[in-house]
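User: Predict the full complex structure for these chains.
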Amino acid sequence: MALLKIENLTYTYPDTLLPALENINLTIANSEFVLLLGNSGSGKSTLLRCMANIIPDFYGGKIAGQILIEGIKLNNIKPQELASQVAMLFQEPEHQLVKHRVENEIAFSLENLNIEREDMRQRVVEVSNALNLASLLDNNISELSGGVKQKIALAAALVRQPEILLLDEPLSQIDHTAAEDLLNVIRLLHEEFGITVIIAEHRWDSLLSIANRVVFLEAGRLAYDGGVKDYLSWAKTNNAEILPTIPRLFMAQDIANLPINVKEAKKTLASYNFNKAQALSKPSLQQKKELSNNSLISFNKVSYHYPNKAVGVKNIVHNFNDREITAIIGQNGAGKTSLLKLIAGLIKPTKGQILKHDQSAKIGYIPQNPDDYLFLPTVIEEVTYNLTADEEKNKAYKFLELFNLSAYKNSSPRDLSFGQKQLVVLAATLATKPVIICLDEPTRGLDYALRKQLGEILKKLKADGTTIILVSNDVEFIAEYSDNIIIMSKGEIITKGNKYSVLTKATFYAPQVNRLFKNINNNILTFEEAYNFLKPTCN
Amino acid sequence: MWYSYEFKPNLFYLTNPLVVLSLVLGWIFLALLFNHPLYIVTIFIMVNLTIVGAGNGKRLLVQLRYALPFVLIIVLINALFNQNGSTLLLSYNLASFTFNIYWESIVYGGVAGLKLLAIITAFTFYAAVINPDEVLYLARRLGQEISLIINLSFRLFPLIWSDYVRIREIQKHRKPIELDDGQISKIQNRVPTLSILLNNSLNRSLKTAESLYSRGYGSGKYSTYQQLEWRSSDYLLMANTIIMIALALGLQVKGLGIYSYYPSLDSFSLLNYRASLVLALLLSFPLLCNGSGILWHYLK
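Assistant: Here is the predicted structure of the two-chain assembly.
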């Protein structure tokens, strides 16, 4: 019997006319790992919420068709029973946690199910050991990082011993390292415990090797349902979306059997013969690279301490030059955001000096969460905020056109998708004509298409003379678009330099294409370089 | 962070939350019951000393810094508009109005301000000492919805504060305050921050409610993970609170808690001083227990 069966499901949100989901039919067997894909607004989150009965019970709206779990209709299952069978993990770790102590948060899920105290203790200990949270049980949740909070939310879901785990973009709001850690846990749960996993995620390259099925939604309809490799070919034929780097690279060379990860791709490469000249060649882009020496901002032994005396950054000495894209990377708490805020002037150094060589040069700051920036009723008002001259306003309108936002100019910015909001913030920042733009984790929560769009915009801005400084742990993006890298740890700069000098030496900060060609040609960092390198051999 | 709960190894943090809640409600009751300046000053001092004794002096200072302007406003308004006193300190004309500032109205405003401060600091103690998780256990007996509201309020305050700091930084950068900006411009400058804060908070509440729903909250019978124990010290502190309230009621019935500010200030009787001393002893009992370490023996 199917574990989960969806029959002719159509759902319309309250106060809307068009259905968010239309005639969905899906059967999911026990122990499947389903990757739920689709562009923004395609209905992925809505479908997951239907499976957990949050829709329509919590949201209301009109629903037709039915969902069955082990043959029983979802609305015939008591809420407590359903909560023990189906667990859901949401995007924002902060929004899912209600308790103060880690242990109480995990146990809270069981209290709601009226589980005996002794039983609760056993389950809490087991799950916290399995997820490496045992040492944190007495900790205050608010003091933990986003990644650990998401792991606690996962523990609170797993402690219910669910048969189905629904994950709604659980990796999108946490950093790269924490995402890898969480992914390993999810992989273990599926492989060792046979939990059925249904996951929607914008950045799904790491999930390709775990998933055994892909479901693709397009405008609320089921467009594809099948195997992972077949999906890649289908996506190419149907131009459905931009694929992750590794399959895209081989697809561009017209190779039929597409690898889904670095391991498989290396196997494919093993059958190729690369000549010596190729192995020693340096990509043309790298050869052309000429870095500017015109310093815009100089940091002279700058330190920053938070009001509670915690170290933000320590003894920073660095020049930020014009017309460059500099990426700052490092683990949580490394001081990346503090450094970015110091550059933008949001905070002042507690020690040392920051020298801005052109005092009139404007610095734009784009925060991690666009909701912290946008407050006006319409997009156009946001973009023209603080502008007085008509000429300036006209220029601002052009940014809306450039970012394909003209159609939304009279819409409320808070109603747009996350990626669109990011673009509105970028447009509003650019309208003030900044010489330097600081971006904090700009690719977080963006799908491959939006990441590419953002990257191309940054490249164009650089070509037009803007200096860009970004904080990110998205190594694929950084390798593709930045010129310089700064690696930070414990508030200090550990290493810095041209991206080729920093990333080609790296292991965990190396992008996929670099890992792929390791020991063949270590100089490859971007998709274009990899494509040009592979092309003669494939031809 | 000064505004969030952080365990400290002292008696108050180990006390049953119901006992702490009773103590705090006792303080508030006393502050509301009396209008005698001697008792109000006693209550204010003892509550503040207890907060310091519980290791939250810094938190108290921050709270007082925010609350003091309100007290000054109370004193000022009362001094300006209450004309019932007899000891004239100052008199001035503004347009066709004559303002007389009386000593009695300043004292009355000051005592009213101290009452308010005592109540605010009582809440400071409560927020500092009570583990929000334990509040949820207590409140759940009153109903799942009430407990949820209480718990989320506790949790949201620190989150809202850190949101405010972050959003304010961004909005100040977006539209910096100019040196020649007047007070109205400065206030207007905060509107975007507050608007975003409100929107984000509503959004967070909705998401949290959704997550709780998916975890089966409020869907039926529930069990409790944590068992709230009653130690010997809890019984002693509870008894002390009951005695304190009984004494306060007794003083009020005997007329010793009543004080007249107008037209001239009453004088303090010897009984007032004695009652104030007893009140101070009762109010200091938790602090003495904490300091002496006698009750640690029972706790261990």
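The mean pLDDT of chain B is 87.
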